[in-house]
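Example 3.2
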Amino acid sequence: MFKKYIEVYTTLSMEKFFIAKNILANNSIPYKDTSTNNQLRLSSNNLRGNNYLFSRDSAVKTVYSLPVRKDDEARARFLLNKI
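Structure, written as tokens:
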């Protein structure tokens, strides 16, 4: 009933993430976007804005992840290998 999803691609680059999404979509491979936005977490830790260590900067990146169904894992890995 429920299909298991396997993570096949992870990157810190938004550009590569969208390239990977387009490759999967163009090849009719269903995927989920399980990206983690760390900027939001850090900004909520610094609500008053007086702690510069918790402010938004380029040190903390968003992690972009794409899982696909277990049945499509091999095909997706083959297609995404060239990125």
